[in-house]
Design brief:
heterodimer, A: 153 residues, mainly alpha, 2 domains, 0% strand, B: 498 residues, 21 helices, 70% helix, 1% strand
């Protein structure tokens, strides 16, 4: 079986996006040219998107396939997941603790070599404290206090 | 004597202590960002946009602009000393700048880059000052059809300049336009593509999109243990260029200033393109083209001047017509809009303090940058030693806090992460994210002017071809499209990112 190449996969994605917005545009009523409605521009743009992606799709199917550059999933997924987890933790643990946890994971991904974890621990603590001082104390960004902290008092 | 009164007022605005401080802060951050590879001015401006809510529109424009032209100064330091561009507009500076450093002439290279930037920066502000005023009068001749045509031309040129494929850049632009139509329709009040999510009623925010595409994407691209930058071990030596250096450089600096300014004005043109064109021009004008690539000072002086004046050039359409034509000005446009200031032909008459304050701050900022860059060069060399492993997680942290603080909700952080992942995938699949942001900002203007035009003409598309200005603009756009079909363009010109 021929492997799907980057051009085909990419254009199929945009095709789907285009169809989605085109249907949406029609449902929003493009109106008439004399009296353009809210759906006109979305429809025009999605039709453009659809035709461009069909063009790229055709080129990808006929011509030589582009090779997909190495997409690294692993650490990227960890980063994205940890940010969303951070969003959940923020309400539970408050800014200071959850920031420490997030930064611990992030620095952990980047640091290497001997004595990695003590250094990661130090940097994460420093960032969390500095971040708390700058954003929460000085700039007064209203972060959630965290249930655990509030309940503990 | 209106003109002098205006300039005077501009300086009065700039000399207010708050504005002075923010101008300096902008220049410092700009230089820092320019020096650090991995994040460029666009990313920095995106991350700092939320900060500007708390300050006045004049102050925020002064700050954000300082970051942009400051980055043009800082970028050269990294290019010359490490052979890694600090930001995209300093890519060509690597060619001759690094060679000069290897020959022990890092000092003069840094010196001429800073002086060239200073001269170009100042010349271009003068030009901006004299041009925007009459142009904004001309802008009154711009009706809905002209605006429609101008936007189409801008997007066409931007996608034409895309590094890889024009059609792919157009797809990204189309998606940017579509995103702009999420939210309440301004003309009918109808909710579009909101799926009942109340956070989407006002549309997708430009902040999370920009931070995602230019901040988070960079983080995802640079994951994993990184290599340390190897600083060239040569001594900096004398920073002041010699008499011979000046003799070799004054023409490239003058030409570079001019080229940069013109390219900045052209819709879709940007600092990176300006630096490439300037380099090519200098090579062509030189009596010793063979020296280029082996440490010719002209190859540093020209591009480094042109990338500075390109920024001021880009401000011309923004202030005269209210149309951002590059990613840089798109973000400034967004900053103005967030403060409820509507850019357009009436911006200068209605908010003279913003325009003249910015102009005056740019005079001052360029002087500040000269001081920041030359006597303090040793400090920036130290900055280059900050390891990526600390920098990259911090960038992500700033993005998260910035996106959160905007509305104090985690929804925007989620949107930002979505666009971060999208940006990462776009790059992996050989698409460019830059057209998305410009299309997103231009989207509402395009829609309004197009729908108004059609209403005026009673549904006749002929209206776009009956107004002389719009015919010219559309003709140019068609020309650009056709030339893409018939000529193989030179690649690698304009990747505005980083």
């Amino acid at each position: 079986m021929k492997r799907l190449g980057s051009e085909v996969v990419g254009s199929l994605f945009w095709l789907a996006v285009g169809v989605f917005f085109a249907v949406g545009g029609i449902m929003l009523k493009p109106g008439t040219l004399r009296n353009p409605g809210p759906g006109l521009l979305p429809l025009i743009m999605s039709l453009l998107l659809i035709s461009f992606s069909l063009f790229v799709l055709a080129k990808g199917l006929i011509g030589p396939e582009g090779i997909l550059k190495g997409i690294q999933w692993k650490s990227q997924t960890v980063v994205v997941a940890s940010v969303f987890l951070y969003g959940l933790l923020l309400n539970l643990l408050g800014f200071l603790l959850s920031t420490f946890a997030l930064m611990f994971v992030l620095y952990g991904l980047f640091f290497g070599g001997k004595n990695k974890w003590p250094r990661v621990f130090f940097c994460a603590t420093a960032t969390a404290l500095a971040g708390w001082l700058v954003f929460s104390v000085a700039l007064k960004v209203p972060f959630p206090k965290g249930w655990l902290i509030v309940a503990g008092r | 004597m209106d003109f002098f009164a205006d300039i005077l007022m501009g300086f009065q605005t700039t000399f207010q202590p708050t504005n002075l401080v923010y101008c300096l802060v902008g220049c410092l951050i700009g230089t820092l960002i320019g020096v650090l590879p991995g994040i460029g001015p666009t990313g920095a401006v995106s991350i700092l946009l939320p900060v500007t809510f708390k300050i006045s529109p004049v102050t925020s424009i002064i700050l954000l602009s300082g970051i942009y032209y400051g980055a043009m100064y800082g970028g050269s330091i990294t290019s010359i000393l490490v052979n890694v561009p600090g930001e995209a507009a300093s890519v060509v500076t690597c060619l001759d700048g690094y060679q000069m450093a290897r020959q022990g002439r890092a000092g003069p290279a840094l010196g001429i880059a800073a002086f060239g930037s200073y001269i170009a920066g100042t010349l271009s502000v003068i030009a901006l000052m004299f041009l925007s005023y009459p142009l904004s009068k001309l802008a009154l001749a711009f009706g809905p059809p002209e605006y429609t045509a101008l936007i189409i031309l801008g997007i066409t040129i931007l996608t034409y300049l895309a590094q890889k494929s024009m059609i792919k850049a157009m797809m990204v632009a189309a998606f940017g336009f579509l995103l702009a139509y999420v939210g309440i329709d301004m003309l009918t009040g109808k909710a579009r593509f909101t799926f009942g999510i109340s956070n989407l009623m006002d549309g997708v925010g430009i902040l999370p999109i920009a931070m995602g595409l230019f901040g988070v994407t960079e983080v995802l691209e640079n994951l994993g243990p990184s290599e340390e930058l190897s600083l060239s071990r040569t001594k900096l030596g004398h920073l002041l260029p010699s008499r011979q250096d000046w003799k070799d450089s004054w023409k490239p600096i003058t030409r570079g200033s001019f080229i940069g300014f013109i390219i900045g004005i052209i819709p879709g043109g940007n600092a990176t393109l300006a630096s490439f064109v300037s380099y090519a021009t200098e090579k062509r004008c030189s009596k010793h083209p063979e020296k280029f690539g082996h440490g010719a000072i002209e190859g540093v002086a020209g591009p480094e001047s042109s990338n500075n004046s390109a920024f001021a050039g880009g401000l011309v359409p923004l202030f005269a017509l209210g149309i951002p034509t590059s990613v840089a000005t798109a973000l400034l446009f967004a900053a103005l809009m967030m403060h409820g200031v509507q850019p357009g032909p009436f911006l200068i008459p209605e908010h003279p303090d913003i325009f003249w304050g910015l102009v005056a701050s740019m005079y001052l900022g360029n002087i500040m940058l000269l001081i920041i860059n030359l006597p303090l060069i040793a400090m920036w060399v130290q900055v280059l030693r900050i390891p990526q492993r600390i920098l990259i997680p911090l960038i992500l942290f700033f993005c998260i806090v910035g996106a959160y603080a905007d509305n104090n909700s985690f929804f925007d952080v989620g949107v930002m992460m979505f666009f971060g992942v999208l940006g990462y995938l776009l790059k992996r699949f050989d698409y460019e994210p830059a057209p998305l942001i410009l299309a997103f900002v231009l989207g509402p203007i395009l829609e309004k002017s197009m729908r108004q035009s059609l209403k005026i003409s009673g549904g006749d598309f002929g209206i776009f071809f009956s107004h002389p200005i719009s015919v010219i603009l559309l003709g140019l756009a068609a020309l650009v499209l056709l030339s893409n079909l018939f000529f193989k363009k030179q690649t690698g010109l304009a990747d505005e990112k980083v």
